[in-house]
């Protein structure tokens, strides 16, 4: 006998392909309950008039057949055979009595365009979005003296498929979901992430980036470094790349201090490397009062100066920047660090203005242990000696720095200044002699020019005298009343002029060409 307990059979087939062996199994039961996994139910009652009419199976590929709490009733094959025979005999008659089912055309309109038609989203009620995982972001506010530190927890209801199988997938969550059964997270379907408050603020932008594949990353200066950090932490390659490209284009001298603070907060060496390269390439544009000089570390500038141009103007400006940086960060400079910032490769030349300041900083870094001058102090001495004019009347700050210098430095500076002054004096004398020679040559040329000018003046007087001998006659009346026209020059015939000649010229006016005569004579 069959025991009074549920019997479940799973059939992977269409309802029309039930095997005959299954029917023989079912014939031993009075009542069979057939249901699909969606909860819809159909029944087969063996005691009905016809087996084929009462056993109806829904069109699903996977069924669950429950034979539970039903007493076993012995049934012979003859009973089943008679039921089949009755069904066969009444088959034609039943088929004839069937009426054609009329189809109804649906007049339902299109779905409304509203929020419910959007794709999957992590926003909203998790019951409505069918969320299957929860991420709880735990963050703490910055610890300040006035405001005590507080902890915040923000839940995000997400979907495992979109986090792991999308184009912008997270390998971190993929590994987590694959091994979730081994951790407590798999049982609660919850992941807790402890993030800095800056990264927690950027987390919604990360989820939007994962869910909306066709939209660019929503990023700005304040969230760029945090998003790049989240891309590394959650292993999202696309996010790392897009955030990094934004940083390269967005970094400027105005926001360099923001990128430095955020990169140091997350210990992001990639962003620090990009920032150092930018500062080195634009070192000539950095002002001595820039905020980045006050908050940065020596490592940033050691890496930055490797990318700086080696033009004389840039090298001089770098020496000013390093002096300002050292003044703002005296505690961060040991001898090795200071020498790295002021080495010969980075600052082969020193500007005279910060030279004494750099010498004092070098003394502090070396703790006055060196008796001889360092390479930096020698370069500073050279720069001051080349500008010894500024030492003639130094200001109060320079005078104070000169008093603090070692005797060896002052002697070296004095000797170099004298040599430079002597060299400049010799050069000035040579230039003066050359100027005198040039002046003498110029005076000779001027005398020659004056002689030529006098000769030209005499020739001009003779020409004027000859021209005064020629006097024109009064013009006679011109035919047809035209205005007389005097020729620009007269042709000399055979080297002499007759006492009186008559020349005929053609004159044009508004009425055409006219003939006129002019008379002239030669006296003498």
Automatic annotation (TrEMBL):
Lineage: Eukaryota, Sar, Stramenopiles, Ochrophyta, Bacillariophyta
InterPro entries cross-referenced by the UniProt entry: BTB-POZ/Galectin-3-binding, BTB/POZ_dom, SKP1/BTB/POZ_sf
PROSITE patterns, per the entry: BTB (PS50097)
All copies of domain BTB, residue ranges: 131-219
Ranges in a coiled coil: 418-445
Claim: Signal is one of the keywords in the record: yes
Residue ranges, annotated region (Disordered): 103-126
Keyword Membrane: no
Keywords, alphabetical: Coiled coil, Signal
Protein name: Nervous system development
SMART domains cross-referenced by the UniProt entry: BTB
Signal peptide: 1-21
Top-level taxon: Eukaryota
Organism: Seminavis robusta
